[in-house]
Amino acid sequence: MALTLKLAQLQSKATRASQLVSKHAPLYYKQLLEQNKHYIQDPPTVEKCNLLSKQLFYTRLASVPSRYEAFRKEMDYVKLMWKKRNEWKIEDAGIATLFGLECFAWYCTGEIAGRGFTFTGYYI
């Protein structure tokens, strides 16, 4: 009985939220477009979209060397910290542990996404 009551309350809240979104979404959409109209290409043609797509791709490709250099600097810092691990404070060890846990969490997320968001094989 309590489950039915909670389900009805949840449905009522979802309905109110849906009504609120449908009431305010068009205004938000118009404001968003107005604030960012300097980014909008006029006229929005397929050719213009293809050009922008290629510009984005090659701009990102051109930024690879600088990002690689930043990655190398980060790796050099990590190597230096690993060499000096005997001098670590508790804070440094905590940061390293949190970083390792974050890497593991991203790995697990990638594995789950790669399997189509199924949780088979993990016993957590």
From TrEMBL:
UniProt name for this protein: Mitochondrial ATP synthase subunit G protein
Family: Belongs to the ATPase g subunit family.
Coiled-coil annotated residue ranges, if any: none
Signal peptide boundaries: none
GO annotation terms (biological process): proton motive force-driven ATP synthesis
GO MF annotation terms: proton transmembrane transporter activity
Record-linked InterPro entries: ATP_synth_F0_gsu_mt
Subcellular locations according to the entry: Mitochondrion membrane
Keyword field: ATP synthesis, CF(0), Hydrogen ion transport, Ion transport, Membrane, Mitochondrion, Transport
GO CC term, one of those recorded: mitochondrial membrane
